[in-house]
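queue> pop job 88
queue> type: inverse folding (structure -> sequence)
queue> payload:
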């Protein structure tokens, strides 16, 4: 790989790893001027960009280039000449606006890359997406409070910050914090004997976006302060949006008075995406990275990563980086090698483990699962076990029948088709089955 290809590969990797606004502001307009004596000379549009890149990106980029070129590499950032800036059609005022916008976003703790435009909508998240848009268009008049809940990596934070970005455009006073930041702010205020400043900060805003509220459970002082903050904002007709990994009723360690207030608004859950949505997410991410990825590779990734969007996008990033850094084309074989660490080989999951996990999830014994009892509370878990044996281990129908107590292969076929159909039609059931699948792969995904 020559120097120009190496720099383009580095830019591609940085684009996937950095927030979009940061990449567009500081990295996008950089250009390779020359490569001599293992030093990449990179021209940038202004002194601000040069200083930012030298202080924050030099080490990372040099490691990437060293790996690509297979020898130690260094980077030298210089300013573009006037002619080069004219050629790139870079307007200083537009750069200033981008820097200003990024600073403004940073001050509100909101990441500008999370917008409604780049949120992929599917059957699993259509309602929470619509509710979040309604809140952003008419804060405190649509749904207040709005409570979004769901498993890890399903888009709760994306929607929360999309609300913030949409309302920031209209000059609304927005604050986004995690529950941990809220707790730390309170602790620091108490330590400084300055709780009045803390209350002014949180009670003088128009929209409060608080992420992962479940982490204030068991913290009495934090719950007390949040209770009064909630009441003040709600009483002033200010919008409150909250996310959690579970529904209010399931937050048993949270004070009842808080749970009851969460339940007075709209509560919506975000569910794991079905196959078509997962493929759409991957295709969109690839397009934004300026990459053409064959459908068969996108489908392979989507089949392997089923219940976590963050992990899904990470898998695509890994495949693209593996291709770039090794200099090999995107193929199914390369994809399987790149994703080796994302999930254990199906052969590592044993039939007995499947039966044990399903039995435990439904409070049954192994003997009951394998018995001839046809009651619904036993037959349905038995059919789920058959489906997972087929889905994870890829055992044949006769093999599954033998494992499940000597059942006929037509019984297994019926069970697999029935569970597959239920997964497509029943969102909550799909989440339950995916959770069992993740348990077998030892993935820590929290599902209600």
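queue> result:
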């Amino acid at each position: 790989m020559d120097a120009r290809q190496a720099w383009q590969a580095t830019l591609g990797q940085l684009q996937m790893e950095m927030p979009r606004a940061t990449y567009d502001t500081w990295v996008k307009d950089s250009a390779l001027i020359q490569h001599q004596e293992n030093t990449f000379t990179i021209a940038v549009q202004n002194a601000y960009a040069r200083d930012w890149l030298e202080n924050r990106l030099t080490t990372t980029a040099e490691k990437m280039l060293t790996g690509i070129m297979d020898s130690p590499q260094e980077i030298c950032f210089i300013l573009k000449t006037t002619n080069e800036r004219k050629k790139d059609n870079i307007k200083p005022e537009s750069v200033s606006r981008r820097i200003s916008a990024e600073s403004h976003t940073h001050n509100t703790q909101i990441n500008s890359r999370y917008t409604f435009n780049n949120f992929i909508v599917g059957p699993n998240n259509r309602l929470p997406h619509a509710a979040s848009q309604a809140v952003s268009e008419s804060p405190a008049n649509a749904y207040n409070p709005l409570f979004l809940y769901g498993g890890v990596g399903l888009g709760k934070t994306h929607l929360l910050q999309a609300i913030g970005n949409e309302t920031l455009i209209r000059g609304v006073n927005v604050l986004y914090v995690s529950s941990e930041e809220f707790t730390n702010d309170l602790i620091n205020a108490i330590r400084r004997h300055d709780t009045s400043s803390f209350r002014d900060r949180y009670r003088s805003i128009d929209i409060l976006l608080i992420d992962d509220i479940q982490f204030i459970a068991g913290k009495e002082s934090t719950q007390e302060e949040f209770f009064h903050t909630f009441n003040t904002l709600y009483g002033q007709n200010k919008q409150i949006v909250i996310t959690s990994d579970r529904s209010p009723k399931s937050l048993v360690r949270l004070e009842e008075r808080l749970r009851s207030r969460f339940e007075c608004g709209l509560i919506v859950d975000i569910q794991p995406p079905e196959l078509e949505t997962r493929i759409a997410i991957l295709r969109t991410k690839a397009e934004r990275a300026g990459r053409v990825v064959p459908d068969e590779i996108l489908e392979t990734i989507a089949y392997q990563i089923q219940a976590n969007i963050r992990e899904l996008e990470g898998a695509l990033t890994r495949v693209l980086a593996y291709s770039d850094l090794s200099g090999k084309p995107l193929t199914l074989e390369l994809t399987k090698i790149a994703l080796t660490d994302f999930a254990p080989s199906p052969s590592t999951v044993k039939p007995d483990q499947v039966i044990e996990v399903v039995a435990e999830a439904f409070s049954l014994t192994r003997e009951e699962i394998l018995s001839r009892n046809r009651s619904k509370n036993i037959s349905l878990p038995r059919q789920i076990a058959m489906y997972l044996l087929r889905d994870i281990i890829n055992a044949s129908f006769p093999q599954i029948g033998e494992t499940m107590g000597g059942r006929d292969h037509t019984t297994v076929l019926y069970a697999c088709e029935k569970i597959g159909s239920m997964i497509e039609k029943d969102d909550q059931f799909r989440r339950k089955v995916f959770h069992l699948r993740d348990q077998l792969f030892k993935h820590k995904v929290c599902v209600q």
